[in-house]
Write a structure and sequence with these properties.
Shape of chain B: globular
Number of helices of chain B: 9
Strand order of the largest sheet of chain A: 7-6-5-8-9-10
Structural class of chain B: mainly alpha
Radius of gyration of chain B: 19 Å
Helix content of chain B: over 70%
CATH superfamily of the largest domain in chain A: Glutamyl-tRNA reductase, N-terminal domain
Number of strands of chain A: 10
Structural class of chain A: alpha/beta
Order of helices and strands of chain B: HHHHHHHHH
Largest interface: A-B, 28 and 24 residues
Number of strands of chain B: 0
Order of helices and strands of chain A: EHHEEHHEHHHHEHEHEEHEEHHHHH
Number of domains of chain A: 3
Distance between the termini of chain A: 30 Å
Radius of gyration of chain A: 32 Å
Oligomer: heterodimer
Largest sheet of chain A: 6 strands, parallel
CATH topology of the largest domain in chain A: Beta Polymerase, domain 2
Strand content of chain A: 5-15%
Low-confidence stretches of chain B: 272-278
Distance between the termini of chain B: 27 Å
Mean pLDDT of chain B: 86
Number of domains of chain B: 2
CATH class of the largest domain in chain A: Alpha Beta
Helix content of chain A: 40-55%
Largest sheet of chain B: none
């Protein structure tokens, strides 16, 4: 049985095409069933996000299956296949497995390491299991993909550096201060970005927030949200020495914090370091302040630079993720090939033969007075029993290989007789919970 | 080859392996390597301890009398102090900075003469092991502060200039590095002070005078004043961060000069110890 993938993404298709091929999440049942009705397709799943539309399926004949899926995609959306063909990619077997693992691990995303895609695939899988279009293979396959994505997330730093300006501020603070929970944040002005950054700070341990604004009510309102306190704008300079992190975005035409002022504050706070995030344009803080020891001043452009550096770092971490995926593909592929009838029959027979040999040795060891003829007769007898027992299951398996039930038979035989197969599923329970909780 | 020299080479080999593993972790992004490296380093440390004991048994006095022995003992204390710090901070990147230092000390040591000194009646005093142990422990703590200082300056440079290399992501926060600086100072300074006092006691019992202003003593005192100034600055006017890092670096260079340079360039009463003694 082959796993096949057909799809398009932000890398191969412009948004005009992607939006026309998208599947609305409210109406997944019909397309999923239509997909399963295609000749040769035995399981199916549809992932549809704003950046990609992908069909995962299993089929005996990979080429025919891929052609079916492509035609289905065009016909379902009433587009000429020639129009979408150049934007489509397809893969099968190991490549298909790699593709899905990479997508789930967010290596194929526009922003590498972004966490949404995994949730989107989980949702897609939720529909496929709700409408029973995911069978044995896709079930295991998707669970495996989820566990691979989890491994990538925990074993690499692919998602650990901020790619948003507001969160980059928090990470900068973490590179300066040992801990954030005893730090005080001062918000000057009421910029949206400042508010967002402040929220990140609070979520990451900061407990003390101060807010100042030319309009005191605005400051009070924001302060309430963070359980902080408001300070009149004219008085905020007197509080600066208690502040470790400043987030500022006022509409002031001139600097509201000058070099000399900051120098004095530093002396007051015994040179304890300060992080200043100046998101205002024109800037609120004199850039020369950055030259002072223990002052770290970042403006919007600097934060963008941090984000760029973080993206580069994520790309480096992606290499580690590729290695993990490579490892997991091998494991899953071994399981998948286990599902073939011939290796199953072979290992079933081998297992029986092993049991027979072991038991005969035991018997021969305890019955020492057996002659050569008797031994031969016992050997023939046990051999015949095994052949008789295996005859029916073997022929059922061989027949089943031609229709869709084959995989379940193989799986059942493997489970019933304890035939070793590398277990591909990761955190089954955990994922099932996620899916049903949706 | 006598047992202690063989053990020394095995310990050196362990240190090499540990250093390589630490670099694999920091540069090659293999976190597991760092965990293995710690055990290898601990193994090397224990073997190194055995080296010291074997040497003691062979020559009959605390083996810190020539350059080979001194460098080996210095490396031992550096590794030991690092392992202690690692319990608290667990910073692989610090290991990647400290281990090469221990390695260089070991390699330079192994290149010098391993011949033991004649038993000198002065080395018979029990002040001798007390003095060298305290002094070297102090040195080792300051070696860690030195490395943390370099790391601080690198990290601070990147944060100020807003140009981030791969190291930025591996280095700890400035706050952590600064707290290492302070910890080192608060352990290293008393050790160094006691090292100097015990040295004076030893001098009194050996030569009948506490202090004779030979170059080594003078430089030790200069170094002591440097660290005293830093400690004072930290506690009173809030010297921290960059300034403290720079002080830790200068202090250690001074200390190295006291340890090695004085014997190379100046002569004095400590010269009997052929570069090593203090």
């Amino acid at each position: 049985m082959n796993i096949i993938v057909v799809g398009l993404s932000h890398k191969t298709a412009p948004v005009e095409i992607r939006e026309r091929l998208a599947f609305p999440p409210t109406a997944m049942e019909a397309p999923l069933h239509a997909m399963l009705a295609l000749p040769g397709i035995s399981e199916g799943l549809i992932v549809s996000t704003c950046n990609r539309v992908e069909l995962y399926a299993t089929s005996r004949d990979a080429d025919a299956g891929i052609a079916q899926l492509k035609r289905f995609l065009a016909e379902h959306h009433k587009i000429a296949i020639e129009d979408i063909e150049p934007h489509l990619y397809d893969s099968r077997g190991e490549d298909a497995i790699r593709h899905v693992f990479r997508v789930a691990s967010s290596l194929d995303s526009m922003v590498i390491g972004e966490p949404q895609i995994l949730g989107q695939i989980k949702t897609a899988y939720g529909y496929a299991s709700e409408f029973k279009t995911a069978g044995l293979i896709l079930n295991r396959f998707l669970h495996k993909a989820f566990s691979v994505a989890k491994r990538v997330r925990t074993e690499t730093n692919i998602a650990s550096n901020a790619v948003s300006v507001s969160f980059a501020a928090v990470e900068l603070a973490r590179k300066i201060f040992t801990a954030l929970n005893d730090k005080t944040v001062l918000i000057i002005g009421a910029g949206e970005m400042c508010e967002l950054a402040a929220r990140h700070f609070v979520n990451n341990g900061v407990t003390s927030v101060m807010v100042t604004n030319r309009t005191l009510e605005k400051a009070e309102k924001l302060a309430q949200e963070f359980h902080g306190r408001a300070v009149p704008f004219s008085e905020f300079p007197h509080h600066l020495h208690q502040v470790d992190i400043i987030l500022t975005s006022t509409g002031a035409p001139d600097f509201i914090l000058g070099h000399k002022q900051v120098e004095d504050v530093l002396r007051l706070r015994k040179n304890k370091p300060m992080l200043m995030i100046d998101i205002a344009v024109p800037r609120d803080i004199d850039p020369r302040v950055n030259d002072l020891d223990n002052i770290y001043l970042y403006d919007v452009d600097d934060l963008q630079g941090v984000v760029q550096a973080n993206l580069k770092e994520r790309q480096k971490e992606a290499k580690k993720a590729e290695a993990i995926i490579h490892e997991e593909i091998g494991q899953f592929f071994r399981w998948l090939s286990c599902l073939d009838v011939v290796p199953t029959v072979v290992s079933l027979r081998k297992k029986m033969e092993e049991i027979r040999q072991r038991e005969m040795e035991k018997t021969f060891a305890s019955l020492k007075n057996l002659g050569a003829d008797e031994k031969k007769a016992i050997e023939a007898l046990t051999g015949a029993i095994i052949n008789k027992i295996l005859h029916q299951p073997t022929s059922v398996l061989k027949q089943a290989q031609n229709d869709a039930s084959g995989d379940s038979y193989v799986d059942a035989v493997r489970a019933l007789f304890g035939l070793e197969c590398p277990a591909p599923e990761g955190e089954m329970a955990h994922i099932d919970q996620d899916v049903s909780g949706k | 080859m006598s047992a202690n020299v063989l053990l020394f080479k095995i310990a050196l080999l362990f240190y090499v392996v540990a250093t390589v593993l630490f670099f694999m972790d920091v540069v090659g992004r293999r976190e597991k390597a760092g965990t293995v490296a710690r055990w290898v380093l601990l193994g090397g440390f224990l073997i190194h301890c055995a080296t010291l004991v074997a040497r003691y048994v062979e020559i009959g006095y605390t083996p810190v009398s020539n350059l080979y022995e001194s460098l080996s003992f210095f490396a031992l204390t550096v590794v030991g102090i690092f392992l202690l710090f690692d319990l608290r901070y667990r910073l692989t990147v610090l290991a990647a900075f400290v281990c090469p230092l221990a390695l260089v000390l070991m390699i330079v040591g192994s290149a010098t003469s391993k011949a033991a000194k004649e038993i000198n009646p002065m080395l018979d005093s029990w002040w001798f092991p007390v003095h060298v142990t305290l002094a070297f422990l102090g040195n080792a703590v300051f070696a860690v502060a030195f490395m943390a200082g370099i790391m601080y300056l690198l990290q601070e440079r990147m944060l100020k200039s807003k140009k981030f290399s791969a190291l930025y992501y591996r280095l700890p926060s400035l706050g952590t590095l600064d707290s290492i600086n302070y910890k080192c100072l608060s352990f290293g300074f008393p050790l160094m002070t006691m090292g100097i006092i015990s040295g004076a006691m030893w001098a009194e019992s050996a030569w009948g005078t506490y202090w004779s202003w030979d170059p080594k003593e003078t430089w030790a005192l200069i170094t002591w004043f440097l660290y005293a100034a830093l400690l004072h600055g930290r506690l009173t006017v809030g010297w921290r961060g960059r300034r403290a890092a720079i002080f830790a670096i200068i202090g250690f260079l001074c200390l190295l000069f006291t340890f090695l340079g004085v014997n190379l360039f100046l002569s004095g009463m400590h010269s009997f110890s052929a570069l090593g003694g203090r």
